[in-house]
Amino acid sequence: MRKVTAGLFHSLDGVVEAPNLWQFDSFDDELGAELTGMIDRVDTVLLGRVGYQEWASYWPNAERGDPFGSFINPVEKYVASRTLTGDLEWQNSRLIDGSLEDFVAALKETSGGEISVCGSISVVRQLLFAGLLDTLTVMTHPVIAGSGRHLFEPSDPVTRLTLQDARRTSKGNAILDYGLRTE
Question: What distance in Å separates the CA atoms of residue 26 and residue 169, rounded to the nearest whole number?
Answer without folding.
Answer: 9
